[in-house]
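I am writing to request your help with a piece of structural work I have in hand. Here, with my thanks, is the record as I have it:
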Amino acid sequence: MVRKSWWRRIHLFLLGTLIVALLQTCNHPLQLQSQVKSSDVTALTCHPVRHELGETCIPPHPQRVIAIDPDSLEVLVALGLKPIASTIPNRTGSKTLLLQDKIGEIANLGRESQPNLERIVQLKPDLLLGMSITPQMYSLLSRVAPTVSVEYAHTNWKKTFQQVAAIVDRQATANEVLSAYQKRLETVRSQVLQHNGQQTLCVMRFYTTTQFNQFFTQNSFAVSVLDELGVVTIPDLQRQQWQIPNTDWGYFNTSLEQIDLLEADFMFVAIDPGAEFSFESYENSPLWQTLNVVKQNKVYIVDSGHWVFGNILSANAILDDIVRYLLNENHS
């Protein structure tokens, strides 16, 4: 979540003022009359949706949907919709490779922590949807178009998927997509058991600074997918680690001095853009070379765009990586 600060509040206030000004310029007296009639019709046909920040009346079959963050974009695309705009991640890799075949080119609203509100107004959306939108941002966005905030859940992402499906009236599509995913899980599970048997997998993430190198725990999105797969799991020693006691944080910050925590049959390394130097510092360390998983050349680089945060399409991409690296003996 974005930390609150006085500068942030001032920025939001100024952007709110900008939105009001833009909306007022659009409301020419003649236009206003037609808009009132249009809104009366919409009020009769829209359906109310309760969410974590209140209740919003959603128009039937919205056509100009904006995803406020990449994870919302992923869910909407998986449900067969094509949003007109979205943001890019703050730190992780982009979901472009994951989604480009399904959506093509859409408007870029900048970083998810600071979407371009002026551009959002210009695009005239009929629905804005995001994961865990802040109350301040929700207040601003709601002035532009019906806005819904859905709670992001690392391990309960299927519930999030179904919630969004209900909002956009795509429940049947959601059931089909989840059913296909369940069948794929069973297929991959059978393949891994036949080929490798039960395996342990350490999933590491390298941030843009060396201060934040971590492995994922059972409370992370990625490991929730592995746990459902069942035959590929994180080491027991990692399950015993807690970044902060009694929290549900999905990661554990680590260092080379804790190298024994990283030992596993396989290791996947998700590197955020700009964190390549941080990973190189590990690779060049004598301590890193002591790991059996390193000696056996079973360390693989994966895309942080779908390993850190995600939903159904990212979960399928994780299964793709499992098949690519665990089942392909000739991969180097």
Q: What stands out?
A: The chain has two domains: 48-169, 181-326. Confidence is low (pLDDT under 50) at residues 1-11, 20-42.
